[in-house]
Amino acid sequence: MVRIDLVKYRWIWFGISLAILIPGLIGIAACLAEFRAPLRPGIDFTGGSILQYQFGKAVSLDAVRQVLSQNGFPGSQVQLATVSGENVVVMRTKAIENEGDKRKLDNELTSKVGPFKVLSVDKVSATIGPELLGSGLLALCITFGTMILYISYRFKLDFAICAIVALFHDALALCGIFAILGLLMGTEVDSLFISAILTVIGFSVHDTIVVFDRIRENIKYVGSKGVDPASGKEFKKTFGDIANDSVNQTLARSIYTSLTVIITLTSLYLLGGVTTRDFVLAMLIGIISGTYSSIFNASCLLVLWREKKGQLRTKTA
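^ thats the sequence. predicted structure below, dont judge the formating
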C-alpha cells in the first residue's frame, strides 16, 4: 500500500472534517429551532400510538405505510409480528388525537388493504422521551469518562484527550447528518439511534487505540536516524515522523477491517427491512466517520499537541 504523509497534510484532513461538521451543526441548530430538539424526535421521544391489527389475509407492509402516509401519518413504523401464533401488523404512528381520525384510518385500511381485527390500541406517553434521553446522555458521559481514565492509564493524558476529540467528531458528524436528513427527508430518531451512537463510539475508539498502541511502541525511535526516500538525505526522526510511520503500518489493517463491516451494513441497508434501515444507516455513517477520524484525525491531533507542547517548553527554557 502507498505510504501517505498524513502529518504533512493534516490541515487538509482537518478541513474535510470541518466541511462535514459545520453543515451538521447548522442542521442541529435548525432542528433546535423547529423541533426544540437537536434531531427530529421519533415516537419514543414525542409519544404516539401503537396499533396491532390482525388482517384476514397476507398484506403488503408497503401498502399499509402508504395508507398511513395518505391519512396524515407519514414516517410511521410498520412491521410484522407474531402474536399467539398469528401474524399481526404493528403500526407505530404519531399520536391519534381523536376517534374520528382513527375511524377514518380504519376505513381506509379496510378498503385498500383488507378487513382486520383490532387486537390493541395503545398510547406511548411522551414522558418516556426524557427518560430515554437522560439514560442515553448518562451512558455517553460514563463511556467518555471511563475511556479517558483507561487510555490515560494505559498511555498518557494527551493520547486520551485526542481519542475523545476524535470520538466527539464521529458523534457530531453522525448527529449532524441525521439532523439534515430530519429537516430534508423527515428522518426521525428513536432509541435505536442511541444504540447506534454507542456502538459507533466503541468501534471508533477500538480503531484509534490500535493506531495509538503502534505509536507507543515506535516512540522509542524518536531522534533516531532516517533516510528521506526522495532525496536520500539522512535526518533525525521527530514525533511526527514516528506517528506517520505508525499510522501507515496499521493503515491496511484499519481499512480492511472497516471495509468488511461497511460491506455488511450496505447489504443490510439495501436488502434489509424498512424498520431497521435508519439504524443501519446510522451505523454505516458512523463506521465510515470513525475510520476516517482514527486514521486522519486522532494521530494528527496528537502530533499537533506534542508540537505545541514542545514549543512552549522551548519558550520557557
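The mean pLDDT is 84.
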